[in-house]
Amino acid sequence: MKLMKLYSLNSMSIPASTFRFVVIALLVFLLTACGRSETFVDLQQFVGEVQARPGEEVEPLPTFEAYEAFAYSAAGLRGPFDIPVIIQQSDGSVLAENVKPDFERVLEVLESHAIAELAMVGMMERKSIYVALVEDELGEVHRLKLGNYLGRNHGRVVFISETQLNLIEIVPNGNDGWVERPQSLVLTR
User: Fold this and answer.
1) pTM here?
2) What pLDDT score was predicted for residue 70?
3) Among 31-35, 51-55, 158-162, 173-177, whose mean pLDDT is lowest?
4) Cα separation of 152 and 181, whole Å?
5) Ordered strands of the 119-126 beta sheet
6) How far is CA 112 from CA 21, 30, 54, 155, 156, in A?
7) How far apart are alpha carbons 174 and 95 in whole angstroms?
8) Alpha-carbon separation of residue 186 from 58, 111, 156 (angstroms)
9) Which of 2, 29, 44, 70 gives a 20 to 30 Å CA spacing to 107?
10) Average pLDDT of span 20-24
């Protein structure tokens, strides 16, 4: 009696010769499916047509003008976003014609800051003379007395009390002249 080798698949018995045939047929099918076929003929034809076209001329790069640096020289003028200066004299008097800032004097530390960036945070009294404590936007506290300057518009301190600091700014009037404008910083803390 010949012994036949049987392979079992899900409770089915398959003879070894049949199993080998099925495996070989499956391998042949897979190899022919992975092989080169003629299904890409239209794609290859399109690629060939595109490559055969003559190349188009490329536009030249645009020329750029060199950057010219600009020095902003209007730092002492009124900012474009500040409230416009409208000065009306209540008594009808004529504004002083000799008002102009002193451009020869040495600028003080707080003159590089706008008034809106400064805040009065305290006051000291020394021999019945008030000294105002003013904080800038960096958090540094500065002492000011009468006659000190602050703000970008040549503001000079004219009065210091327990609750506020008054100053007079010299601003352009729009007609190539200057006018005085009162400002004040009120104690915030």
Assistant:
1) 0.49
2) 77
3) 31-35
4) 13
5) 119-126, 129-135, 141-144
6) 96, 83, 65, 11, 14
7) 14
8) 67, 18, 16
9) 70
10) 86
User: Which residues make Cβ contacts (< 8 Å) with residue 109, sequence separation at least 6?
Assistant: 142
Give the pLDDT confidence score for residue 42 in this predicted structure. Answer: 84
Length of the chain: 189
